[in-house]
Every structure is written in C-alpha cells, then in structure tokens.
Specification:
The protein is mainly beta. It has three helices and 24 strands. The longest helix has 11 residues, at 313-323. The structure holds beta-D-mannopyranose. Beta-D-mannopyranose binds at residues 43, 104-105, 241, 277, 280, 282, 300, 303.
Length: 335
C-alpha cells in the first residue's frame, strides 16, 4: 500500500532546517476574496505604509488570462484585508503599447531619498516580457516611466539607495548565455547602463540550473545585501520553482560573498503543489517586524493564491555561514 502523499511530504520536510515557517492560515488571499470577478491572485509586492499597515500589490489575472495589479491592505499583515474595489494599476496599451498583454509580478522598494515607493513590474509586450517602472506615494496614483529594460527581461527590484551615486536595478535578461541575474546602474531611473552579471544559474542537475531570478527585493543587513532568488528546475512533468539564498557586498552589490548550495524553501503544501501552475513558490515581497529581525515573506503559491511565511534574518545569515560558499564563477563541478 502506498503511503498518503502528505505523509511522504512531511517526512521529507523534516530533513530541512525550518528557515521559513508557513503561516497556519495559508493561503492568506485567494480569488474568492476579490471584490470583482477574477481568475486568480498571486505574486504580490509588499511594503509597510507609514501607519504600519501592510500593503500588498497583487498580481491579479482576469478571466481573459491578462494580469493587472490590485492593492490589498491589512492592519496585521495576515487577515482583515481591504481590497481595492477596482484594479489599482491597469495595463494601458494605448499609452504603453508594451503592456498589451498585461502587467505582472510587481516588486516594491521604498526609497527614502525620493520619499516614494518605486514599483518595478513585468510589462507583457508582443516582443515578450519587459521591465517597467512606476513611482507612487500612496498606491492610489502613480507616475509611470514606461519600459526601462527591453524584452526579454523580468524579475527586477531597485535597491533602496544609490550605490556610488547611481541607482541600482537587479533584473534577469534572457540572453544566449542563459537566464542569469544582472545588475545595472542609472543616474535618473530612466537611463540604464554599466550592466554586470551578478549571479549565474548553475548547470547540470543542480536545483538552480539554467534559470534563476530575483525573488523579493534585497534585504540590507550589516553583513551585506541578503538576496532570495528562485531556481527553476525543468523536469519531465514541468518546472519546479524553489528558493535559494545569497549575500552580496553592500557597496559593490555585483560581488557575491556567499551562496547557499541547497534550496531553503520549496513547494510542499497542497496549495503550493497544485494550482494553475503546479509546484511554484514565488516570493515577491517582505515586510520587517519592529524587532528588526523577523521578516514576513509574501509569496505566490502555484500561480493561484498568496501565502505567508516568517523567517529570522539572523537565522538566514547563520545558515549561509554554515551552508554557503564563496561564489566562484564557472566552478568545475557545475559545468
Ligand atoms: C514565471 C513568472 C511568474 C510565474 C512563474 C510560474 O516565469 O511568469 O509570474 O509565477 O513563472 O508560472
């Protein structure tokens, strides 16, 4: 007799250190919560507003298959969500033709110098997914800059402060070299250059072989930028989206200081394993608790719902010290 699936999964998960703890109320937001008719809600950017309210800017897919963004606000970041009664940011293909097939996967960075939130998101154009940027003070109105990285490019976030006088953007262009994380710099958020390869997908059988991308925006710690990234493993039955961890130099963020070899979080719960796209955990944002250590990580589950997991920054850094290695490009064992 075969053991029930949940038993097998629970046994497996006990072999991993519980770095990210799932909230028992998961999933915390689904399409059923929406005030208007949609297909699904997932992949939300997250931030804290000045009054302590948690704001999620959610990717909402309508029943044509096209996505827009919609804000949900909650006092405790877990329940009691107040969801905008209509889309907060709609694709506007007349003004922005690159948004013809929708806008997706926002990430939010509060930038103290601008006293604004910078939202970077995927604009789905005829040429494929590109990167667009908008500024907002309140998530009610926004100033849209349009496309800042041409297709095929996605998985972006802005660092919250300038590095050596320049804004820094992490992104994931698809090139003939593969799907790796890059960083680019700009004097004004509009013109981007000095493109540098930041983190490479490994090769062969690795969990993060061939395709990786930034997850939530980097977390600034005294030791460096702590970065969650996703690895996409192709299998005969589809892709597996899992989460890994790396640390980058504070003043030279293209320099990787430590990279974990194994993934730290992967699809295990039923709502992560089964959905419109099976086996996907996809964090897009986090908020920090007043203790300065506990983070609330909001992630899309199976492209169908939004879930929450908690982690300690100190424990993540300890794990990297114990399980990470200095990143060496083209390590012989990876090729
Ligand atoms: C990625 C993005 C995400 C999505 C994921 C899994 O390429 O499109 O929006 O969650 O695939 O389908």
């Amino acid at each position: 007799m075969t053991a029930p699936e949940t038993t097998i999964l629970n046994v497996q998960s006990t072999h991993y250190p519980p770095l990210l703890l799932r909230h028992p109320g998961n999933p915390i937001l689904t399409g059923k919560d929406w005030p208007y008719s949609i297909n699904s809600v997932f992949n939300a950017g997250a931030t804290l507003l000045p009054d302590g309210t948690t704001l999620l800017l959610c990717r909402v897919e309508d029943r044509r298959g096209l996505s827009h963004l919609c804000a949900a606000r909650s006092r405790n970041g877990v329940d009691g969500w107040q969801i905008d009664s209509e889309p907060t940011l709609m694709p506007s293909s007349r003004e922005y033709p690159e948004e013809i097939w929708g806008i997706e996967d926002p990430r939010i960075t509060f930038v103290p110098e601008l006293q604004q939130y910078v939202v970077t998101y995927t604009s789905y154009s005829r040429g494929g997914p590109g990167v667009s940027l908008a500024l907002t003070k309140d998530f009610r109105s926004s100033e849209r800059y349009g496309v800042i990285m041409s297709p095929d490019d996605k998985d972006t976030a802005l660092l919250p402060r300038r590095i050596n006088g320049y804004w820094a953007l992490i992104h994931r262009p698809m090139t003939t070299l593969g799907a790796h994380m890059w960083i680019s710099y700009s004097p004004d958020l509009r013109h981007w250059g000095r493109h540098r390869l930041m983190l490479e997908a490994r090769r062969g059988a690795w969990w993060d072989a061939n395709k990786i991308g930034l997850s939530a925006p980097p977390i600034e710690t005294s030791r460096g930028w702590l970065v969650f990234y996703h690895g996409v493993r192709q299998t005969p039955s589809g892709c597996l989206y899992r989460l890994g961890l790396a640390l980058f130099d504070l003043e030279n963020p293209e320099k990787c200081l430590l990279r974990g070899d194994s993934w730290i979080f992967g699809p295990e719960a039923e709502y992560e394993r089964r959905g419109d796209v099976d086996d996907v955990v996809f964090p897009r944002g986090y908020t920090m608790n007043p203790d300065g250590d506990t983070i609330n990580i909001y992630y899309g589950a199976a492209d169908c719902s939004i879930a929450l997991a908690r982690a300690s920054v100190r424990s993540l850094l300890d794990w990297l010290d114990a399980n990470g290695s200095r990143e060496r490009r083209h390590r012989a064992e990876d090729l």
